[in-house]
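Sequence, please.
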């Protein structure tokens, strides 16, 4: 469906005097705003909002929504992002008035149910990671990385090693947020090479590891879907050098209930509940980035932590209360402090809590087993069409390379990604990681059926057989085809009409 009216702005539809709702006539003497509010609070003119009817608003937004690809409408194999189905029961749980209508400044004794759930959530995340202490505060995976690196910095300062440990080691196929978080937390980043098989180059790692290393950040399974073969050795050597191991937990979907980062040597990790635990994200909602750490790092976690009182007077907080009650512990002198207002993105955490409770321990393990099975099935189906440099087996995702197709036919990974839209599929992640030329990163997730995976493989095959020109100009069926990406980046038109000069 291509309808130019769908792409009109509400401002284009505006006619003076149109309203979606009308207030009753004023039945008290009107007073000028300036008499009711300080002049600094009164704008010179009302905001230039579009004047439209209710059906116009509804059609506008419903039509816009149909131009989007979402997990609810299409297969969405966007590697690294874990775009699994978002169960609707999670939404209902998070929207329960008992949760959704709480005031964030309520005293602890008025929000015991909420605190109980958050306390259990801390315990579940610790159990799944094998790391005993948890903070739910960070608001996204990247924010969790940053918070955990601040925790590491505080830990080293406390040990008198703050000035010495200035480096964070990051494999060269890491997500861009890893080096960015390290720099924001005040560290220098040192890239560690990856081998052609996708594993860490141990020689390069050892050359770069010394007593300046504060943290090694590692994604495991990594971004090419390989479980690091030398994980335990790497962790042991970082520890022997006095450093800490940070696990980027974005790929936890591959290992739930199968192995635990704390057991393979991580000292800290973040979760992406919006990925692993099925929260809507991307265009569909915000995320969260809770972190788990070892006992040694626990004192530095952001405040507050949710705790359950075991005795009348809590030794840590000094506050008294009934045993069994939950409370927010702010009395943590070594804490790095708050990294976000209130307790974190509670709505996202509630969805994740509901998902964890729905599946239970055995169910979570099956999630990972099926995610890995689906990825391997798809890998086996597409590797003849698009070679997978890292081999015949993967964890939750794999990275194919379009470089042969580019050489033979002049068709780029971007052309394939765009053409997939015409076949009704969201594109895989392309051009990441940079260590694979013409990378096409596919993560089917466990929620897809064999029929969907077969149809996707079939579509990929047909696309590689199509004429190059058809692909260069794709997509042909969407409202917008290919924006000029250079123009869009260099001279973006971001002005709202009412601010245009
Ligand atoms: C998604 C992702 C991140 C960042 O997480 P956000 O929640 O988007 O901030 C970090 N590392 C990896 C490997 C990821 O896939």
């Amino acid at each position: 469906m291509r309808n130019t009216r769908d792409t009109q702005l509400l401002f284009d539809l505006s006619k003076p005097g149109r309203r979606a709702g009308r207030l009753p006539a004023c039945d008290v003497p009107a007073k000028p705003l300036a008499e009711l509010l300080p002049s600094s609070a009164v704008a010179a003119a009302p905001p230039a909002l579009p004047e439209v009817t209710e059906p116009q608003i509804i059609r506008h937004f419903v039509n816009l929504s149909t131009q989007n690809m979402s997990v609810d409408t299409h297969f969405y194999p966007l590697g690294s992002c874990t775009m699994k189905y978002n169960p609707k029961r999670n939404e209902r749980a998070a929207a329960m008035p008992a949760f959704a209508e709480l005031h964030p400044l309520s005293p602890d004794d008025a929000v015991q149910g909420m605190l109980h759930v958050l306390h259990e959530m801390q315990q579940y995340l610790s159990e799944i990671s094998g790391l005993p202490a948890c903070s739910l505060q960070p608001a996204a995976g990247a924010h969790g990385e940053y918070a955990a690196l601040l925790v590491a910095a505080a830990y080293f300062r406390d040990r008198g090693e703050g000035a010495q440990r200035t480096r964070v080691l990051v494999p060269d196929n890491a997500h861009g947020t890893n080096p960015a978080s390290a720099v924001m937390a005040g560290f220098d980043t040192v890239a560690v090479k990856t081998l052609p098989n996708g594993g860490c180059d141990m020689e390069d790692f050892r050359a770069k590891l010394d007593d300046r290393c504060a943290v090694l950040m590692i994604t495991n399974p990594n971004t090419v879907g390989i479980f690091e073969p030398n994980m335990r050795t790497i962790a042991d050597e970082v520890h022997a050098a006095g450093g800490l191991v940070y696990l980027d937990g974005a790929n936890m979907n591959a290992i739930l209930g199968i192995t635990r980062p704390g057991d393979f040597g991580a000292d800290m990790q973040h979760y992406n509940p919006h990925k692993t635990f099925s929260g809507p994200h991307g265009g569909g909602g915000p995320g969260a980035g809770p972190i788990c750490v070892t006992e040694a790092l626990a004192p530095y976690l952001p405040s507050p932590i949710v705790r359950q009182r075991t005795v009348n007077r809590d030794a840590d907080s000094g506050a008294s209360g009934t045993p069994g009650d939950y409370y927010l512990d702010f009395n943590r002198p070594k804490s790095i402090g708050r990294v976000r207002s209130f307790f974190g993105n509670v709505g996202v955490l509630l969805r994740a809590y509901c998902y964890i409770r729905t599946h239970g321990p055995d169910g979570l393990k099956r999630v990972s087993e099926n995610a890995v099975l689906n990825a391997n099935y798809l890998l086996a189906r597409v590797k003849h069409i698009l070679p997978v440099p890292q081999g015949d087996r993967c964890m939750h995702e794999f990275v194919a390379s379009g470089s042969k197709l580019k050489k033979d036919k002049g068709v780029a990974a971007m052309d394939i990604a765009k053409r997939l839209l015409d076949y009704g599929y969201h594109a895989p992640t392309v051009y990441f990681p940079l260590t694979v030329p013409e990378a096409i990163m596919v993560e089917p997730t466990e929620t897809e059926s064999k029929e969907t995976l077969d149809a996707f493989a079939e579509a990929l095959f047909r696309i590689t057989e199509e004429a190059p020109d058809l692909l260069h100009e794709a997509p042909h069926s969407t409202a917008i085809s290919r924006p000029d990406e250079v123009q869009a980046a260099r001279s973006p038109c971001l002005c709202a009409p009412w601010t245009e000069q």
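The CA atoms of residues 211 and 240 lie 9 Å apart.
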